[in-house]
Design brief:
By secondary structure, the protein is mostly helical. The protein has 2 domains: 1-49, Arc Repressor Mutant, subunit A (Orthogonal Bundle); 63-188, Tetracycline Repressor, domain 2. Helix content is 75%, strand content 0%. 25% of the residues are buried. The mean pLDDT is 91. One of its GO terms (molecular function) is DNA-binding transcription factor activity. This is TetR family transcriptional regulator. Keywords: DNA-binding, Transcription, Transcription regulation. InterPro entries: Homeodomain-like_sf (IPR009057), HTH-type_TetR-like_transc_reg (IPR050109), HTH_TetR (IPR001647).
């Protein structure tokens, strides 16, 4: 079978992300990606320059996908505490089983090592927190800060689930976040 002469960057970066997620960050090499996408390794080197630049481009592409998914999900939820839970449960649905979640932590490690990718993650967090703030706003007012607390609770619930993955991650996240919402709404009501 002949190699394709060209593929759009998006297709190549999807193949790179697939390699990252299935075989880990160290498996993302030009030779491995060439085998996965069908382009010559030399073509990939010309396109991306170095392994570090390739990894960064793939992870920036992943952030683009997460931005888009977050935007689409946020557009379809009610601006209520239940809508905030729905958003975070939907964002958790891609984690899959514990093995997939654990492999994803290796990808997060790569994001944390790179200043550009860290900044990209912080920008996504700010967007997510803004949506959560609108969902958790009191009637007729706005309470800043609850969105950040809920986002932190979400991330914590994912980590704790990883130690005892007794049920699907979305089920665990939903239960934990509904308890969080019940707690903050009872505190607002003074009970």
């Amino acid at each position: 079978m002949t190699r394709p002469k060209t593929l759009p960057d998006q297709t190549v970066l999807e193949a790179a992300l697939q390699l990252l997620h299935t075989k880990g960050p160290e498996a993302l090499t030009f030779a491995g990606l060439a085998q996965a996408c069908g382009l010559a390794a030399a073509t990939l080197v010309q396109r991306f320059g170095s392994k570090a630049q390739l990894k960064q481009a793939a992870l920036l592409h992943a952030w683009d996908r997460l931005d888009e998914k977050t935007s689409q999900l946020a557009a379809g939820i009610d601006r209520t505490p239940a809508g905030a839970v729905d958003l975070l449960v939907a964002l958790s649905s891609d984690y899959g089983a514990i093995e997939s979640y654990a492999e994803g932590l290796l990808i997060l490690r790569e994001d944390l090592r790179d200043p550009l990718l860290r900044a990209r993650g912080a920008r996504w967090r700010d967007t997510l927190v803004g949506v959560l703030d609108t969902c958790l706003a009191e009637q007729g007012g706005r309470r800043q800060g609850l969105g950040q607390l809920m986002a932190s609770q979400w991330q914590g619930s994912l980590a704790w689930w990883g130690f005892e993955p007794n049920c699907p991650v979305a089920e665990h996240v939903g239960r934990e976040l509904r308890q969080f919402v019940a707690f903050i709404t009872s505190k607002r009501a003074g009970t």
